[in-house]
Specification:
alpha/beta; 5 strands; 4 helices
Length: about 200
């Protein structure tokens, strides 16, 4: 009968345990995976910026965020890039009902979260609008043309993602140089509680 031992129980009593834990192969692989995911996120941001720059009129780019945390970020993104931010509640029929007062015909749609912004993404599929979305692991990818893998739940993460996307759009348009830093700070894109604004 063979006995199964747990790895922690297999150490001999004579062998001293190391005081510091060396970098194991699994944690090294995790660090490489995390850095490649950050690189993948930046590559997708560059791809999304190319899609945005390809639209001649910046006002034809529509940004929607049902999350309260994304409202300030999309307003700042719209301010710096000239895009159209829909900051109020998304009314069904905004992209499909021409009789409606708030009817818009964007050529590109940017979403903070495909899970909470399901109505705009569904309507964009009806009228064939390409869609860019920040997607977390639980985000549905149906009707998303460019999924940017990122944390879309955190206040600072959403703000930083929109700051990076705005900076990349301006760099590809030639408005700012890659050699110098963008003077706009990322924390301007972060959501702030109303009592913090005072």
């Amino acid at each position: 009968m063979s006995r199964r031992c747990l790895p922690a129980a297999c150490t001999s009593a004579a062998a001293p345990r190391p005081t510091t834990c060396p970098l194991t192969s699994s944690s090294a692989a995790m660090m490489v995976s995390m850095s490649s995911n950050i690189g993948m996120t930046y590559e997708k941001i560059k791809l999304a910026a190319r899609m945005i720059v390809a639209i001649e009129n910046p006002a034809d780019v529509c940004i929607v965020s049902a999350r309260t945390y994304g409202q300030r970020a999309i307003m700042k993104f719209a301010q710096y890039t000239g895009a159209n931010a829909l900051t109020t509640r998304f009314t069904p029929g905004t992209f499909t009902n021409q009789i409606q007062k708030k009817f818009v015909e964007p050529r590109l749609l940017i979403l903070t979260d495909p899970l909470s912004d399901n109505q705009p993404i569904r309507e964009s599929s009806y009228v064939n609008i390409p869609t860019i979305a920040f997607c977390d692991t639980d985000s549905p990818l149906r009707f998303v043309d460019c999924a940017i893998p990122a944390n879309n739940k955190s206040i600072k993460s959403i703000g930083l993602l929109y700051w990076m996307l705005a900076r990349e759009v301006l760099r590809q348009r030639g408005a700012i140089s890659r050699a110098e830093e963008w003077e706009v700070m990322p924390d301007l894109f972060f959501y702030r509680e109303p009592e913090e604004k005072k």
